[in-house]
Description:
Chain A has helices at about 10-20, 20-25, 35-45, 65-75, 95-100, 115-125, and strands at about 1-5, 30-35, 50-55, 85-90, 105-110. Chain A is of the alpha/beta class.
Amino acid sequence: MKILVVDDESDVQALFEQRFRREIRSGALSFSFxxxxxxxxxxxxxxxxxxxxxxxxxxxPGMSGLELLRRVRTEHTPPPPPRVMMITAYGDDASxxxxxxxxxxxxxxxPVDFAALKEKLLALPT
Amino acid sequence: xxxxxAFTETMxxxxxxxxGRKALDTPTRLPxxxxxxxxxxxxxxxxxxxxLLLGGAIASLLDDLFxxxxxxxxxxxxxxxxxxxxxxxxSVALAPYAVYMLVALLxxxxxxxxxxxxxxxxxxxxxxLGWVGILFFVARGQHKTLAAEAKRRLExxxxxxLIESQNHTLExxxxxxxxxxxxQTDALRTTLQELQSTQNQLIQAEKMASLGELTAGIAHxxxxxxNFVNNxxxxxxxxxxxxxxxxxxxxxxxxxxxxxxxxxxxxxQKISHHGHRAASIVRGMLEHSRASTGExxxxxxxALCDEYLRLAYHGLRAKDKSFNATLQTDFAPxxxxxxxxxxxxxxxxxxxxxxxxxxxRQRQQVAxxxxxxxxxxxxxxxxxxxxxxxxxxxxxxxPEAVRQKIFQPFFTTKPSGEGTGLGLALSHDxxxxxxxxxxxxxxxxxxxxTFTIKLPV
Lengths: 126, 457
């Protein structure tokens, strides 16, 4: 399952690659990384229908995660539409409501509970 | 006058003496003579007694003698007091008559044959009386003139006294007024001191407010690196565990072990990196909150701008989650270090960034522009021996009417309670007074605003 992780912090890549080393090695999960909303959109356009899940930070300079979410949901994406889960430091209810209203499938707060995330990801239908 | 009633001339003489005393004021002017003049009644009584005892002829003689003596005395007194004009005229008036009387007396005493001149003597006496009368009026006139003069002098003196007393009153009032003004001045001075101290408090409050704005941004800033520290530490624990398990295997995989070790090494470096990041953020915040010592250090403006830009952005986002803006940075690759008080410059940058974010947020909220992309950019350059920092936004812009006032203390366009109005005033002070630089503003309403800091190197 191809997962696109969007976050402006570059060390997020190292972290995910190590946290999910077993799953990556076994091929259960496959991760790509974009470091801005714009980069993410470009990747999505270049790799149609490959990405099944997008894990995105909200608080990024330039295009925010919520803006990215909106674009992903409104722009023409070949079916099936990717799931989008927001990961953010701002865990308040207003943000959660807003994200879900824009079409997010889930809302996670930082620091990420990787064990729980792992379970969620593996539970998704491929 | 041999004829006439007994002792009429004595009476007349007494009359002259006492009138003379009053008119010429001998008690005051001639006290030594006056002592004797007062006793004029004594010789008069003597005359009377002698006349009664010695008979008519002697009585008449004594009478005339008394009269002549009185006249002579009157003339003498008048002459003595001749400085007083009326007295002079009295003297002139009485003297001829006195002479006549003495001559007549001598004639009688020496029994000279001057009886034939009896008629003439009556005429002469008449003339002399007329003479006395006329000069009496002259003397009176003089006396009146002198009295009037004396009265005028008295009035002038009184006026003088009145003026002097008025002067005293005025002086007193002036002193009162001066004292009152001095009290007012003291009160005003106290008020001025209170206002200055209040102003200092407001400036301090502004600094604290800016610190408060930082706090939210800083909390977020610190949370990020701390998350990495925790996460990489956890992952490293797992890796170490895995490495231990691998080493315990009977058949070892050196490639895997090498990979694990390499990852461990990298993780530890990352932990260190993020730990330092958090520490420097805390240090920066402490420096900002500390009262500026005014100590100058060589400062890298690129780093300062970057740090405060992100702090300002996160600070604003912490208050308003829906806010978003594009941050553009264009740092000159080679920028000389500037000798500056970095917390003060940091405050200036924070102020400019906060204002820029406020402006773009205003534009986003007020104007319904679907394609509006709020952007705040910071650019550094080294030009004309100056380090320039340009903060630009595409926000609401500053209206013409307000442009002159923005650097004034306590001037703000924000609704009450939202801004102290001191930010730009303090920034201007820090840049111009504190660092000998310049803070320039260019703006276009509806387009955006640019602030330029220029610091001499």
